[in-house]
Specification:
Radius of gyration: 19 Å
Distance between the termini: 14 Å
Order of helices and strands: HHHHHHHHHHH
Oligomer: single chain
Number of helices: 11
Number of strands: 0
Shape: globular
Length: about 290
């Protein structure tokens, strides 16, 4: 991996961890928060996506509309699961579990459905991820043993559900890029636009919640709306010159950054154990992509 590609991927990892910290700060109004940052992302990226589409002499097709609508639905599930996890569990549990479960489930789908046959090293990577998740999920939480057990279980549960959503949108988006040959920037712009549009019916009767979230958490909304797409674009740029097998594990270094920030900003206990567990999860992801 070139120095430029490495800087792009590590920069994306830091941005990813930062916007997840911002999302963790929103304790209530998760649905309204996800809608707000999706809408702002659409406002920013849809004009850019349409310009790129026009410059490429391509056009809006039924394949593009359908594929991006499904991607939008999957990203809604991801955003809501992530926000629920952050509201009810520790970031240093939810984040590494989610980021570790996603690649693990993607590998399992590739084996069971697509009939791919990974080697022994990749299978070992899956087992290492499971071990790392166990280390993170069993770390003590503040508030005593009872709260520790409940917090760990809830964090693990929502982390896994978030990982399922990650695996789902990763597999579908990969199919859209490779099987349907859609352009990445227009695809992303239309996906996030669908995400905002499809969430509008769920806001019925929740106008007060939306206004309150925007008033109280507009810095977090701006942070996620800007940094989440930017991190994704940095990864895409790195992939233009570097194999995804190298980019993917380097990108997941955000797990380590997120765990350290969770300890520093939210004073979550047992930082050493959580950090070790996050590094184990990262090692497992690296083995899967070998």
């Amino acid at each position: 991996m070139s120095a430029t590609a490495l800087l792009l991927v590590l920069g994306a990892a830091v941005l990813h961890a930062i916007w997840n910290i911002a999302a963790k700060r929103v304790a209530h109004g998760g649905y309204a928060f996800v809608f707000a940052y999706a809408l702002l992302s659409a406002v920013i990226w849809l004009p850019i996506g349409l310009i790129v589409l026009a410059a490429s002499d391509a056009r809006i097709s039924w394949a593009l509309l359908g594929a991006t609508a499904l991607s939008g639905l999957l990203h809604i599930a991801y955003g809501l699961a992530l926000q629920t996890g952050y509201r009810t569990g520790d970031l240093s549990v939810v984040y590494p579990v989610a980021r570790g479960t996603g690649p693990l489930l993607t590998m399992l789908v590739a084996i069971l459905i697509i009939a791919e046959r990974p080697g022994a090293v990749a299978i070992a990577g899956g087992l290492v991820i499971i071990a790392g998740v166990a280390v993170v999920a069993t770390a003590p939480s503040a508030g005593g043993a009872r709260r520790h057990t409940r917090s760990a279980y809830i964090g693990l549960q929502w982390g896994v559900l978030t990982g399922v959503a990650i695996a789902a949108y990763t597999l579908w988006d990969d199919h859209a890029m490779t099987g349907l040959a859609l352009l990445p920037i227009p695809y992303f712009a239309m996906s996030v636009t669908w995400e905002a549009l499809l969430m509008i019916p769920g806001l019925r009767g929740a106008g007060a919640d939306l206004r309150q979230v925007v008033r109280r958490h507009w810095p977090e909304i701006v942070c996620v709306a800007v940094l989440s797409p930017l991190a994704y674009m940095l990864v895409l740029q790195a992939m233009t010159t570097t194999s995804v097998a190298l980019v993917a594990p380097a990108r997941e270094s955000s797990i380590v950054v997120g765990s350290l920030l969770a300890w520093k900003l939210f004073h979550e206990p047992a930082p050493a154990r959580r950090f070790v567990g996050a590094v184990v999860v990262l090692a497992g992801i690296a083995l899967i992509t070998v």
